[in-house]
Each structure stands twice: as structure tokens, then as C-alpha cells.
């Protein structure tokens, strides 16, 4: 679009002149067409013998037709038939031409009869039909010749042979868009559709060759380079099955994102996107009704710890979109905190956003945050999550995950917080690594807090810190701070998050971009996966479903083999696994197991209002003993005790490290009889 004082470019001027010339040419044709139509009708009435035409009819025709021809051009202009792009002329233009021609024929019949006398009936009928044919014919003749020319041009220049999956409305729109684009290097050579009634028929001249079982055979038969999936209404499971077959080929895969494009009419080749890994998970994404969640958040002060991370930042985005009173983003890593701060300030100008840098391990800092801002809801996402790194630095995992959670939870409890939501992981189930064991301890911490509060014994929860100072909650020694505490503590457990920081998929993509090898720990290792928005919706639902003490568990569908995931990523890049990109098996890393579990055997499941979200019943444990041993564990972790794993084994009965080789000195924890017990 040109600015007011900007001169049109030469090519724009040429285009405008060409358009005006074509419009004038079309108007001249229409003048001649309507004249010829009624003359032919009159001539036909007298058996194509001009001398037999009665003089009165000829005179009436000759006197009326100049006015009618000019009127016809005016009416056609009012129907916008001189401003249409002929190349894209379609049903709408056909309907408008038909309506204009019918109107003109009615006016012609009435006017010539009233002004000059009655004409033969065949003159009215024949003239109207011939006029309609001539007006429509010229317009669609251009479309036909343009289509034929472009098709010939595409066939000569086409570099990619495309298989289209889906012969419905979306597939037809994609096909037409490709045909109308002369610059396209793609040519659809065959179509796949599961409807048996369509097999053997043609869509826009392209054969429908079979159903999904015929994909592989026809890829070879038609020498297909690309496969376009154009079934926006397909379920996630149906897409997974089709894409699994397509992944057996060497073709580049693209698909339409979903039904929105079909409903909004945004169906074009440009709307096609690369097949994402989540499309292969085989389940529909969680579409929870979050109205209850956001009515709970609206107007409240919300704190997100670890707010710069993958889960934390998405939590902040969704919370910010629903008008909290204040959003506090807390993170130790300044760069990620700065990035999400800038994003939120740009998108939500009226958001009261506070971004704080600090560590959840610093109880004085956490007390200061809660005393200053009094958050009503806390989403605790701050944690060390990388399994191999935590195996090398186990004390750091305990300091940050366990006692960072403990100190944040304690500060929330004594400062009147309403809900505390811990973000946990499926690695907390029967953990084989320090990270998983630390997250299991976090779950036990929030369950312990919740049970003590419900029993009216919040004062029995020790305030753990490694330095004496002003953060002591019960400064006056009266215990008033522990009265009327109503904080509800819950945990949310889910699997690996697609695209999160440190996840396997970005690593695989980097390795593929470098030419390989792609490193997989074991050919049989499997994991559950979910998307970041799914994880966040679950976390937020936990905040509303909470009664206190629950562990919320997502039904994440079927687990995915990491080896299959790696091979699919290589194929999506248009390469062949083990040929173009080698796959190297490196062996399970310290603390890693072949599979992850969503729930411990001892835990039962209860349903929630969302069929994909369940609640695990808490596993009973001696809470007083647990709290006493936590203090010992804290001192050992801050002393960087080499025997920390043995203490974890004593405190987390389900923790079974795969490479447990104790070499450190003996340390002491307490048993159920409150007697010292040596471990190590």
C-alpha cells in the first residue's frame, strides 16, 4: 500500500494500466456480446434467413439495442464484474454473472415490448440464453486457458512430486492453491483417502489411488518427494498412525495445523507446517476448561518460582493473560528472567509485574519476598532437573530441590498463602537417581506440611535454615504465627516436556544439523512426553482442584521410545537414519532407567472432573521421623557429605540407585523408635 505522498512504482503503474486495458476490452466485448445474442435469437427465429425477418422486428431491435448494450455494461460494472481477478474467477463470479444476465434479460423483455412492441417469444428466450452463455463463456474461458497454461508450466518446472493425504474440503483447497500458483515447484501426482467411495476417482484431475495402507506402494509408483497431510479434523491418534506410515518413506512431511484453518478459510500451501514431534505422541492434547482456574487467579497475587524456566515462563504467560492483581516472577538466573520480563511487559501493558532475582535456598530472601508482597498462590517450579548433572552433584540437588522447596513452603505457610503447588516429575516414582529421589522428598515435604496444618500442629514443623537471623518465624516465642494457618499444599506430577530447556529433542536437532551422530542411551529406553501448555494447564488445574495433600497425575497416553523419536526426527529432516545420520548408543547414564512410571504401586488413583487428570492417594509415612531426619539431611548436604545417597536410601524407601557404591563415612539418621541408626 502506497503512502499518501509516495509515487507508485513502475511495475505498479504498468499493472494498473494493464488492468484498465483489460476492463475496457471486456466492456467492448460485452457490448458486442449482448448485441449479437439478441440478433442471433431473432435470426434463429427466421431459420437464419435474414431476408425473412420482418421489418418491424428489425427496426425495433436496431432502435433499442444501442441503449440496451450501454445499460448492460453499466449493470455488469455495478455487479463488480470488471474488477474481478480473472485468474481466480470462481463460483461467486459465476453467480453474479448469472444474476446480472437474468436482470438484464428481464429489463430487455419489458423495455422493448413497452417501447417498440411485442417481439417473438423465441427472441426473448433465445436472446437471454445466448447472452448468458456469451457473458459466462468469455470469463471462464480465460480461467480454463490460464489453468491449462499454468499446469503445463508447472509440469515442465516441477521439482517436487507431492502425495496429498485427504480428498476432503481442505485437500481440495490445497490442491487448487498449488495449481493456481505458477511459481510453485510442487505438483500433486496422487491423492490418498480412507473413503472407499473415492478410490479410483479424480479430484481436480489428480487420481485418488487408495487409503493409508497404499501410501508406501504409491510413493514408489509415483516417485513422491513430499507428502502433505490435509485432514484437519483427524484425531491425534489417527494422525499418529498415518504419520507413522509416512515416516517409513524418505519424503518430506507437512500438515495443516487444525480445524481453525478450515473454518476460517485459511487453507493454503503456506498454511502447511512441518510435522512436529508431538504429532507422533498418539493422543489428543488436553483441552481443559480453565475458566475455573482463571476465576481463581483473577485479582490475586501470584508467585512463580523458577519463573524464567520452560514451565515457569509458560505459567507466567497464562497467569498474566487473566488479570492477576500482581504477578511475581522469581528466578536465580537473570538472563531468562529478563527475557520473560520483556515479553510480558510488551504483551500485557497493564500487568503489575514484579521480577525478583534470588535463590529459593535463601530462607531470609524468601521471607523478605513473602513479607513484602504476600502472595496468595505459589507455583513452585524452581528446581535442578538434569539427571546426569545431579548424579555428579547430589548435594546441590538436595539443597536446591528439597530445602529450596521446604524454605519456600515454610515462608508461604507463615505468611498466609492460600495455595502452594509443587511441580514434581514422574522420576519421583521408584527413583533410581538423585534428582528423582530429591523430587520424591519434595512431595513428602508438601504432604507433611499439609497433614500437620490440617491437624492443627503447624508449630511442630521445624524451621530449617543454616544461619540464625531475622527470618525466624516465631520471634516472640508465643506461637501466634502458627494459629489459623490454612495453606493448602499439593504436588503435580508429569513426564518429560517437549521443547523444554535440557530436553532431548533440541539436542537431537542440533546433532542432526551437525551431520550426526545422534546419541541415544539405549535402544529400548522409553519416556512419557507432554507439551509445555499441557503441563501448565495441569499445574494450574491442581491449584483449583486442591483439597490439600494430593499428588495430581496426568494420563500421558502411551510412552514413546527415544530411539523411535530420534529416527523420526532424522526422517523429518529428509534424511535416512543409519545412512545419512548414524545413531550411536551410548549406554544408560548414571541414575537413568529404561522407563518412567507415573504412579507408585502403593498409590491408588481417584478421578477428577478432568478424565485425563487423576489424584494419587498419599503413601503413609512417619512424618515426625521424616522431619527429624530432614534436619540431618540438610546438614549433610550443606557439608557436601559424600554419603548423601545412603541418607536418601534411608529416607526414601522406593529409591534404588542403579550404581550405588557407598564409599563415604558412616552417618546417623533416626529410626521409628527414635533411636540412632547408622547408614553407610
Topology diagram in text:
Elements: H1 10-45, H2 55-78, H3 91-116, H4 121-157, E1 160-165, H5 169-180, E2 186-192, E3 202-203, E4 206-210, H6 215-221, E5 226-229, H7 236-246, E6 252-255, H8 259-264, E7 273-274, H9 291-297, E8 301-305, H10 310-320, E9 326-331, H11 334-347, E10 353-357, H12 363-373, E11 377-380, H13 387-392, H14 394-414, E12 419-423, H15 434-454, E13 488-493, E14 496-498, H16 504-513, E15 518-520, E16 526-527, E17 529-531, H17 532-545, E18 551-554, E19 560-561, H18 562-572, E20 583-585, E21 605-607, E22 613-616, H19 623-638, H20 644-651, E23 667-670, E24 676-679
Parallel strand pairs: 1-2, 1-5, 2-4, 5-6, 8-9, 8-11, 9-10, 11-12, 12-13, 13-18, 14-17, 15-20
Antiparallel strand pairs: 3-4, 6-7, 16-19, 18-22, 21-22, 23-24
User: Radius of gyration from the CA trace?
Assistant: 37 Å
Quaternary structure state of the chains depicted: single chain
Strand content: 5-15%
Assigned CATH superfamily of the largest domain = NAD(P)-binding Rossmann-like Domain
User: How many DSSP-defined strands?
Assistant: 24
Indicate the low-confidence ranges by residue numbers: 258-271, 660-670
Structural class: alpha/beta
Helix content: 40-55%
Largest sheet entry:
9 strands, mixed
Mean of all residue-level pLDDT scores: 81
Amino acid at each position: 500500500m502506497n503512502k499518501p505522498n509516495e509515487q507508485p512504482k513502475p511495475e505498479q503503474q504498468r499493472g494498473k494500466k494493464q488492468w484498465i486495458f483489460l476492463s475496457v476490452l471486456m466492456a467492448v466485448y460485452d457490448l458486442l456480446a449482448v448485441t449479437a445474442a439478441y440478433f442471433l435469437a431473432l435470426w434463429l427465429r427466421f431459420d437464419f434467413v435474414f431476408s425473412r425477418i420482418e421489418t418491424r422486428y428489425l427496426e425495433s431491435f436496431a432502435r433499442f439495442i444501442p441503449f440496451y448494450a450501454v445499460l448492460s455494461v453499466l449493470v455488469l460494472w455495478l455487479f463488480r464484474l470488471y474488477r474481478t481477478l480473472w485468474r481466480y474467477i470462481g463460483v461467486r463470479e459465476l453467480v453474479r454473472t448469472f444474476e446480472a444476465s437474468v436482470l438484464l434479460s428481464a429489463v430487455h423483455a419489458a423495455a422493448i415490448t413497452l417501447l417498440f412492441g411485442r417481439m417473438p417469444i423465441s427472441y426473448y428466450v433465445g436472446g437471454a440464453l445466448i447472452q448468458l452463455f456469451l457473458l459466462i463463456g468469455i470469463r471462464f474461458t480465460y480461467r480454463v486457458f490460464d489453468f491449462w497454461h499454468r499446469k503445463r508450466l508447472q509440469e515442465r518446472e516441477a521439482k517436487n512430486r507431492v502425495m496429498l493425504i485427504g480428498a476432503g474440503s481442505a485437500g481440495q483447497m490445497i490442491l487448487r492453491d498449488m495449481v493456481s500458483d505458477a511459481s510453485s515447484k510442487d505438483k500433486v501426482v496422487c491423492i490418498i483417502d480412507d473413503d472407499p467411495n473415492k478410490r479410483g476417482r479424480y479430484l481436480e484431475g489428480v487420481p485418488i489411488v487408495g487409503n493409508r495402507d497404499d501410501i508406501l506402494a504409491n510413493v514408489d509408483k509415483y516417485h513422491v518427494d513430499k507428502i502433505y497431510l490435509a485432514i484437519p479434523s483427524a484425531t491425534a491418534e489417527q494422525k499418529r498412525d498415518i504419520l507413522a506410515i509416512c515416516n517409513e518413506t524418505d519424503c518430506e512431511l507437512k500438515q495443516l495445523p487444525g480445524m481453525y484453518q478450515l473454518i476460517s478459510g485459511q487453507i493454503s500451501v503456506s498454511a502447511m507446517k512441518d510435522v512436529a514431534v508431538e504429532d507422533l505422541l498418539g493422543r489428543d492434547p488436553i483441552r481443559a476448561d480453565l475458566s475455573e482456574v482463571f476465576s481463581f487467579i483473577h485479582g490475586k497475587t501470584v508467585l512463580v518460582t523458577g519463573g524464567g524456566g520452560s514451565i515457569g515462563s509458560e505459567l507466567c504467560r497464562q497467569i498474566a493473560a487473566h488479570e492477576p492483581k500482581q504477578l511475581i516472577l522469581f528466578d536465580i538466573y537473570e538472563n531468562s528472567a529478563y527475557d520473560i520480563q520483556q515479553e510480558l511487559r510488551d504483551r500485557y501493558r497493564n500487568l503489575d509485574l514484579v521480577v525478583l532475582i534470588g535463590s529459593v535456598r535463601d530462607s531470609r530472601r524468601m521471607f523478605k519476598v513473602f513479607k513484602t508482597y504476600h502472595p496468595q498462590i505459589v507455583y513452585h517450579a524452581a528446581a535442578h532437573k538434569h539427571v546426569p548433572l545431579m548424579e555428579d552433584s547430589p548435594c546441590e540437588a538436595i539443597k536446591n530441590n528439597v530445602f529450596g522447596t521446604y524454605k519456600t513452603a515454610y515462608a508461604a505457610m507463615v505468611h498466609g498463602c492460600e495455595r502452594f503447588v509443587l511441580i514434581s516429575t514422574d522420576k519421583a516414582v521408584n527413583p533410581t537417581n538423585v534428582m528423582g529421589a530429591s523430587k520424591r522428598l519434595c512431595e513428602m515435604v508438601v504432604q507433611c506440611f499439609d497433614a500437620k496444618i490440617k491437624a492443627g500442629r503447624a508449630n511442630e514443623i521445624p524451621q530449617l535454615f543454616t544461619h540464625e537471623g531475622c527470618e525466624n518465624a516465631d520471634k516472640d516465642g508465643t506461637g501466634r504465627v502458627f494459629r489459623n494457618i490454612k495453606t493448602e499444599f499439593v504436588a503435580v506430577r508429569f513426564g518429560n516436556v517437549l521443547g523444554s530447556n535440557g530436553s532431548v529433542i533440541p539436542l537431537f536437532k542440533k546433532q542432526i544439523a551437525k551431520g550426526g551422530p545422534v546419541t541415544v542411551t539405549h535402544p529400548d529406553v522409553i519416556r512419557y512426553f507432554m507439551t509445555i501448555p499441557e503441563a501448565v494447564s495441569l499445574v494450574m488445574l491442581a491449584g483449583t482442584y486442591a483439597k490439600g495433600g494430593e499428588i495430581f497425575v496426568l494420563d500421558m497416553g502411551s510412552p514413546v521410545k527415544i530411539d523411535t523419536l530420534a529416527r523420526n526426527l532424522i526422517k523429518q529432516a529428509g534424511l535416512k537414519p543409519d545412512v545419512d545420520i548414524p545413531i550411536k548408543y551410548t549406554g544408560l547414564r548414571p541414575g537413568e532407567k529404561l522407563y518412567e512410571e507415573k504412579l507408585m504401586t502403593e498409590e491408588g488413583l481417584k478421578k477428577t472432573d478432568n478424565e485425563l487428570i487423576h489424584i494419587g492417594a498419599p503413601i503413609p509415612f512417619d512424618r515426625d521421623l521424616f522431619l527429624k531426619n530432614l534436619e540431618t539431611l540438610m546438614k549433610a548436604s550443606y557439608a557436601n557429605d559424600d554419603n548423601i545417597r545412603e541418607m536418601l536410601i534411608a529416607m526414601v524407601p522406593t529409591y534404588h540407585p542403579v550404581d550405588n557404591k557407598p564409599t563415604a563415612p558412616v552417618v546417623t539418621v533416626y529410626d521409628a523408635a527414635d533411636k540412632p541408626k547408622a547408614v553407610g
